[in-house]
Amino acid sequence: MSETPTFNPKSSRFDQSTFSGRLSHFRQMVDPKTLLTTPTELKAAQGLLERHAKGEAADVSDDDLWEAKRIKDAVIHPVTGEEMFLPGRMSAFVPVNTIPTAGMLLARSPAATVFWQWINQSVNVMCNYVNRSGATIDTSQVAQAYGLAVGVSCSIAVGAGKLVQSGPPWVRRLGIAVPYAAVVAAGASNVAFTRLPEMTHGVPVVDADGNALGVSKKAAVTSVAMTVASRNVVLPIAPMLLPPITLGAMRAAMPFIKGTPALAVEVGLVAASIYFALPVAIAIFPQELAIPVNALEPEFQGLKDSHGNVVTSVLCNKGL
User: Fold this and answer.
1) Which pLDDT tens digit goes with each residue over 151-170?
2) CA gap 298, 293 in Å, rounded
3) Closest to 244 (Cα-Cα) out of 155, 154, 178, 159
4) At the N or C end, where does the chain have fewer CB atoms within 10 A?
5) Dist CA 312 CA 276 (whole Å)
6) Among candidates 228, 263, 236, 219, which has minimal Cα distance to 106?
7) 66 SS3 class
8) 233 exposed, middle or buried (CB, 10 Å; 0-12, 13-18, 19+)?
9) Any idea what DSSP says for residue 312?
């Protein structure tokens, strides 16, 4: 059993400089069990962390402090300090996204395709808003992003679906990739437009000691690009492509699997795929990005920290 690291309220229990450390961290963050956290448990966790900050928790073990931080981080937004809307938390991602994903895979008519793409993008914009990296957001911008994402996803899903079905046999085999393509394109548009205010006005950046240095537009662009790559390109691969391939193989080997049992199997495969793929995808990049100052605006060049050392990199919250 590994030794419990000394508690640090500004850090993670797991080494965030390694993929395995981030994977362990995000497995905790997306654990659906934290959705059962009661207000009393949250208040107790926050109180314990406040005691530690005041130097009044010397009798508390590192294990207990890390557990308190785990509870707080799963419920409280890291920038706003407010309790996050429950269905939009990362710990709710698996249960909230399973049904829309299964619906998109099982849709057999243009109307069903449009309906499930709309539901999926509604869930996406909620998740993007709740897990934004900045403190504020323009609701009109969110509405525009929502409309764009719905339009893009429905257009691609319906249009590409018709093209595939009207093509030769080898093209029709690509049909399982249509929902994935629609989700990737719409998801990227959704994230980009929902978080456009961050790229327009910048996100807060701090030095290694947590001292505020200002806001950076270039840091915001980097954060959004990495979010799109991990959540909108990598994450959908497992739940959008593996279940239909797996179910197709099962049906070939066991043709009696059809109807309700087949539906239950596909929904189960989708849930399992999301559960295992989500922490892997979001662990690709650190949540707290370290960005070299030479990649940022001129005002961040030549700054010094509280120790008199030149700041060579800044930290910012990437968002999820």
Assistant:
1) 877 887 778 667 667 766 75
2) 9
3) 178
4) N
5) 36
6) 263
7) helix
8) middle
9) -
CA gap 21, 29 in Å, rounded: 13
Q: Render the burial of 137-153: b for 16+ CB within 10 Å, e for the rest.
A: beeebbeebbebbbebb
Contacts of 211 (CB under 8 A, 6+ apart): 305, 306
Residue range 289-300: mean pLDDT, rounded: 88
Q: Compute φ and ψ for 213, nearest 5 degrees.
A: -115, -15
Burial class (CB in 10 A: 0-12, 13-18, 19+), 117: buried
What is the Cα gyration radius of the chain?
Answer: 22
Neighbouring residues of 311: CB distance < 8 A, sequence distance ≥ 6: 207, 213, 293, 300, 303, 304, 305
Which one-letter DSSP state was computed for residue 61? -
Least confident among 214-218, 236-240, 258-262: 258-262
Specify the pLDDT at position 149. 76
Letter for the amino acid at 212? A
Residues 6+ apart with CB under 8 A from 183: 104, 120, 153, 232, 236, 240
Helix (H, G, I), strand (E, B) or coil at 227: helix
Q: Name the helix (H) or strand (E) containing 213.
A: strand 212-216
pLDDT score, position 253:
80
pTM over the 0.70 mark: yes
Residue 207 binned pLDDT confidence (cut-offs 50, 70, 90): confident
Q: Six-digit token pair at 120?
A: 């999926």
Question: Could you tell me the two tokens for 233?
Answer: 């390109």
Number of alpha carbons in the 13 Å side-chain half-sphere of residue 263: 7
Which alpha helices (DSSP H) does the chain contain, by range? 19-29, 39-53, 62-75, 93-106, 110-130, 139-165, 169-172, 178-194, 196-201, 217-227, 237-253, 260-282
pLDDT, tens only, 8-51: 988 889 988 899 999 998 898 889 999 999 999 999 999 999 99
**Among residues 82, 276, 22, 247, which one has the least CA distance to residue 14?**
22
The answer to whether 296 touches 223, Cβ cutoff 8 Å, is no
Both structure tokens of 65: 């402090």
